[in-house]
Amino acid sequence: MRGRKLVVLAVSAMALVGVAIAPTASAAVADGQKHCGSPVNGVFEKATPEEVGLSSEKLREAAGFAASRGTLSFRVYRNGCEVFVGPYDGLVSDIPRNNFSHTKTVLALSALRAQQLGIIDIDEPIGEYVPETAEDVDPVKLTITTRQLLEMSSGMHTQYVWPETAAPDGVEIAYADPQDHAPGTFWEYNQIPLNLVPHVIESALGGDVDYQDWVQKEMFEPLGIPRDSWFWLRDRVGHTLGSHHLFSSPRHMALIGALMDGEGTVGGRELIAKGLYDELIKPLDHIGQPSYGLLTWLNSGDSYKTVGTICTGDATLDRPLIESAPRDMYFSYGWRGIHTYEIPSLNMSVVQTTAPDAITADVLDTAQSVCSVEMGEFYHEFWRKVSAAVMDAPQPDPGPWHNPQPVRAPLDPELFTDQITNGDLSRSIAVGPWAPKGCSPAGCDGKLYYEGYAKLSREAITAISASLVRTLANITAGEEAGAALMGPDTLLPTGDVLGAAGRGVVERELAAGCQDFRAGKDPHDVLSERRANVAPLGGAHGAEFGNAFTMAMADALPAFCTA
């Protein structure tokens, strides 16, 4: 096996001991607006919209429109201050939800953090780091760079949907992916190759450090994100799934936004150098995708290539992603409307998440927009309303949505059948002609893989139960818990709001709910029964607490409960 590349690091004493420079105090500067320091222990300083040049009335209009279309969390930050939270945020702000492909932007940031620390070079072939050799895998795979993985230009065969947690080994499945194009020559949205990014980082660290533990120490902890507040899906052997399924809360998405707002620096601590951070948002003109950077979408492009899926091919649209939004905006894109938006020219970040069963789809060509990730009517009207809230720097209004160039690619059954008859889906569970060598649905090399399931279940139950403790603290403190209120958003110490016995009930109900789901019970019956058992723990706020539990479980059932 190829020896791992040795990296010699020169680390400053400050970085070695993890010292963070204290954030600056808030102040009103020359523009007359309030400016806040970086978040402290994950908590943003607050300001009114008017103190930072925004309109409360217009933001409420945007929040109402978004809520009517399935948005649960709507959070606005400007000048480092938290200035607005939507009507449901008091209930959902601490619930770890499936971030879907928002995860990709977090993955890209973690790779840049690894380069900042000298662990990897994203322009080196991954074969310089991983233990696999040309005798083990297709030699072309070892020439792919981490940058090409982050650009979606690995050239590996595209697969959009696969049974992630059923996969015995996501790394081996990625290596088994057929090579359709030479690396670095063609942009095509893909999922499975991203499993190699955590593997590269773990291998470069020596192979005995878990990627998620490393991310917590090197990125989440400096942002104020505690380990018991998130989880990230794993395959059955325990590898982190790179493309999606980080479960974190809207509050944590805002903290990722703070890192983006600081262009790699937060609280005076440089996690990613500015020049390196700029790689995240460098358009990929050389491979025909001017509206994409490193796993991050860019509104600056005059055109964009859509995401082909199993139901429609990709197409190129000759317009920006969101015409009504500032052109320098860039953002993560999680399926069903899960985003952290960053607008450098306005020093502004926006977080949006949706209900588990909602799709903020465009009312025109709904099937096409969902399939191809065409940014259409909802996004256009949503950003018209958000942009109208900017008082100090009026934004141009392109007018109501019109669809001059809709995606008219016909539904392509061949793309769907290719995933079945050619072995894509079967390969994911290690059967069929494209299955990894030496692997079966049970595991690889004659081993039974289950450790990843066990670890994931522990992490998920810990994170969900801890988040419900935080949520109950918010509710009992009077934070808004329904559409009728728009009050303050306050992170409180978890303390012992439920008590050991109450927390034990929550953990048992989560575990029991998973068992019921695995046994084939109707998900709605499972949610209803378990909600009834935990609601009394909320006392006078039992209804709200039961709702929070239901939202957490609604995402959990099809995710870690299938493990």
From TrEMBL:
Signal peptide: 1-27
Record flagged with keyword Transmembrane helix: no
Top-level taxon in the UniProt lineage: Bacteria
Coiled coil region boundaries: none
Pfam families hit by this protein: Beta-lactamase
SUPFAM superfamilies reported for this sequence: beta-lactamase/transpeptidase-like
Keyword terms, alphabetized: Signal
Sequence ranges assigned to domain Beta-lactamase-related in this UniProt record: 99-232
InterPro entries linked to this entry: Beta-lactam-related, Beta-lactam/transpept-like, Diverse_Enzym_Activities
Signal as UniProt keyword: yes
This protein's name: Beta-lactamase-related domain-containing protein
Organism expressing this protein natively: Pseudonocardia xishanensis
